[in-house]
Amino acid sequence: MEPESAPPFRDPIGLLSRSPELAALARSSTSLRKAIERGRPFDAYRALFWGKVFGRFKGEAKATAEQLLAHRRIFFKPLTSAPAMMTFNGVGTSLYGSADRDLDDGTYVATLFVVVLFLPIFPIASYLVRSGGGRSWTFMAKVPMGLVTYLWQRAIGLGVLGVVAFGASAAFEGYGHATLHVVNGLDHPVTAQISGTPAVTVQPSSEASIRTPTGKHTLVVRDGDRELESSTVDIPRGRGSVVWNILGAAPLYVEEVVYSPSGADAPKGTGQIFCGDSLVLQDSVDYAFVEPPASIQMEKGATSTTRKHLGIAKGGVDTCAGYLVQHGQPEKASHIYLTVAKAEHLPAAKLGQTLEAMIALASHEDAEAFAKDLLARDDSVDAHRIYQDWLLSTGQRERVLAEYDARAKAHPDDADAEYLALRLRDDADPRVPVDAAVVRHPRHGYLRHMQIYAHRMTLDFQTIATAADVLREVDIRLWSRDVAEHATALVALDRGREALDMLVTASQSSALDPPDAKIVQLYAFRVAQKLGDSGPGLPKDADPPEGYQLFQRVMCGLDIETAEVNVLKNEDMKGALRIARDARKLPDRALDDVRGASDRTLAQLPTTVVALLFGEATLRGDAAVATKLTTQLGPKKMADAMTAYVRAGTVSEDLRALPFEMIAALDFVRSRSNTADDKDRKESLKRARKEDALHGPVSVAIEGWPP
Questions:
Q1: Angle at 629 between CA 626 and CA 634, to 5 degrees
Q2: Which helix (H) or strand (E) holds 694?
Q3: Alpha-carbon gap, residue 532 to 497, rounded angstroms
Q4: Residue of 443, 431, 527 lying closest to 486 (CA atoms)
Q5: Which pLDDT score, from 0 to 100, does residue 171 have?
Q6: What span, in angstroms and rounded, lies between the C-alpha atoms of 144 and 42?
Q7: Is the dihedral of CA 513, 515, 516, 521 positive or negative?
Q8: Which ranges of 14-102 does DSSP label H, i.e. alpha helix?
Q9: pLDDT at residue 268, as a whole number
Q10: Would you give the DSSP letter of residue 134?
Q11: d(C-alpha 322, C-alpha 249), whole Å
Q12: HSE of 520 in the Cβ direction (CA atoms, 13 Å)?
């Protein structure tokens, strides 16, 4: 307590004249005294409140403080003007409450609130008012808010500040950070890690996000403990979507999604595919790796509106490679495929025919790097085949012949060494050396595979069937490459029922990869069709691409209806199916279709139809059509071999590598030659019928084409 002799304190607004009791209480509270002397009645009210809470007033002083706090009008501040009040559709300001009422003059304390739907949301201030009736009031003075409304106001204020602070923090974080979307086109999950962040798992054909500071970072992708790739990634500031495509293998795409009012047809949007690109930057993406909605709210009067969608197509690296080949970028397709195969460290035996085809399309540098890397870690026959093919493709035939002849001589009892030397020879009649090798090594898979091809041009179906039977027993995966030859040989030998049973059983083998099993199922269906059997149907696909079943029917020699083609959305598919349908009976129209078709459309054609139309164009001297179809036949040397056979009956090593049905197409075309004698034409037609024993597109053309 202050001594009695203490000088009286100042009271500039007359607060003590309103309530003299405050003087005694101020001697117990420094903050209350300062508020009175500074002429701040609201601060005085708060000081009185907190003095009571913290026990600064005892006995009668405490009771006095409680009485004063109950009369907030004592601590009023004069008004210069009344507050603005209005509401519209339940939103605005309104008075609530009637505390500290004076029955003599009708005044009371009310609080002005911001209201939404007539509900009080935020307390603005408390006033001493007198009701004028209805929704009118006279504002006398401003008074302190009560405890509840004071805390209410401060809580909302702090919340707003928190939101502002959070927004500022998020803006600051967003300015210096970015999200890296990592996409995986491989067929198994991998982990990806940016320096300084935890690793994330990226599932096949999926995306995972990494939040990271902008700038340069090291990105490491692993398959278990093995590193697939490590790259420096410069993540830019302020770009919409930043994507890292692992090994460039995922078929990443961006498309315009066009919306139109209900009942109207939306125009078709544009799109772009990014295959082989590791870092992809895209601005203004509305839907990144999420499916866009079927419909959106549009502005009134709008005829259409566009959104941008970024996603991953199905099929992984196979889809990417196929797309690039179709769009005239075979070397880029091969580069992606070889990059993935090299990073995966797969043994040569698991690489399959697709990779062998990709090596044939690769640049010399890519093929050399892959072949050498593979052979350094894999001494299998499959690895040596790839290495040999690289040497042959780069004009090093003499080198590879000498190298593998020496290898065979050094290991005379080694079946692999003998096969690898034998496959490099270009004998006019390969049957003799191949059959001799088979006698020495009857259960060597690749020798049996070679025997099938050696006897194909002589239509020795019995030897082919025997070799294929043994091959299926010793290596069913390798046999699946020759399933067409095996099925054709058995049907040509009138052993169709045996062929059907064998194919159905083989298609269920767990040793076959799903794509190979589907091919076996397709030939089972074709044999059943040939026998008039209602047995196995066309192979099913969980999510078949558009037109898939129609193309399978074309391969089986079955007709397709125009209406079935017209409902397809993919114009390239529609164009290819129209060409295939015309090729059944109308060669002139089919060739005209080819002349006006894009490479993307022609890439969809079954190879037998391509061979049929290429042979016919070659026979007619239609260089324009023949040239367009050449790109669909693989390396140019294959088209040269087919041309030599159509024109002069020349049988080359490359021609022997063709399946029965493609040779049947060429033989049928030769049977139509005006320069050949009648005997040769009849012999060629007879061969074509035997080679197409499964009655595919060639047999349909034999029956349907005009002379």
A1: 120
A2: none
A3: 11
A4: 527
A5: 41
A6: 6
A7: positive
A8: 15-18, 21-26, 30-37, 41-53, 60-69
A9: 67
A10: T
A11: 12
A12: 27
Separation between Cα atoms, residue 513 and residue 434, nearest integer Å: 29
Q: What is the 3-state secondary structure (H, E, C) of 77-121?
A: EECCCCCCCCEECCEEEEEEEEECCCCCCCEEEEEEEEEECCEEE
Helices (H), 213-303: none
CA distances from 551 to 120, 523, 554, 605, 630 (A): 69, 14, 5, 8, 21
Contact 306, 258 (CB under 8 A): yes
Phi and psi at residue 523, to the nearest 5°: -75, -30
- The residue count for the chain: 707
* Residue 66, token pair as written in the block: 């409680």
Q: What is the pLDDT of residue 318?
A: 86
Q: How many helical (H) and strand (E) elements, i.e. helices and strands, does the chain have? A: 32, 18
User: Three-state SS for 295?
Assistant: coil
Task: Give the type of residue at 28.
Answer: S
**N-term to C-term CA, the chain:** 128
* Coil/strand/helix, residue 291: coil
Q: Which pLDDT score, from 0 to 100, does residue 1 have?
A: 41
Is 578:586 a contact under the CB 8 Å cutoff? no
pLDDT for residue 169: 46
Could you give the C-alpha distances from 233 to 192, 242, 243, in angstroms and in order?
12, 10, 10
Distance from chain centroid for Cα 549:
24
In 3D, which of 571, 615, 610, 574 has the Cα closest to residue 594?
610
Mean pLDDT for all residues in the chain: 86
Place of tokens 């024109």: 647
Report residues of the chain scoring pLDDT below 70: 1-8, 157, 160-176, 238-239, 262-269, 352-353, 541-544
pLDDT recorded at residue 492 = 96
How many Å separate Cα 570 from the centre of its chain?
19
As a whole number of angstroms, the distance between CA 324 and CA 605 comes to 16
Angle at 702 between CA 701 and CA 707, to 5 degrees: 100
Q: Strand, helix or coil at 394? A: coil
Nearest in space to 179 (alpha carbons), one of 339, 316, 310, 296: 310
Instruction: Report the b/e string of 601-630 with b at 16+ CB within 10 A.
Output: bbbbbbbbbbbbbbbbbbbeebeebbebbb
Q: Which is nearest to 141 in space by CA: 109, 97, 188? A: 109
- If one counts every other C-beta atom within 10 angstroms of the C-beta of residue 251, the result is 25
Residue with the two structure tokens 């315009």: 256
DSSP H helical ranges for 96-197:
147-176
Neighbours of 439 (CB within 10 A): 9
Q: What pLDDT sits at residue 27?
A: 81
Helix 587-596 / helix 607-620 crossing angle, nearest 10 deg:
100
The CA-atom distances, in angstroms, between 273 and each of 90, 247, 306, 451, 527 are: 52, 15, 18, 43, 39
Beta carbons within 10 angstroms of residue 271's beta carbon: 11
Structure tokens at 503: 């194919």
Structure token pair of residue 479: 């046999």
Give exposure, 167-206, as e/b (b: 16+ Cβ within 10 Å).
eeeeeeeeeeebebbbbbbbeeebbbbbeeeeeeebeebe
pLDDT digits (tens, 9 = 90+) for 156-167: 767 766 665 555
Determine whether 452 is exposed, middle or buried from the number of CB atoms within 10 Å of its CB (0-12, 13-18, 19+): buried
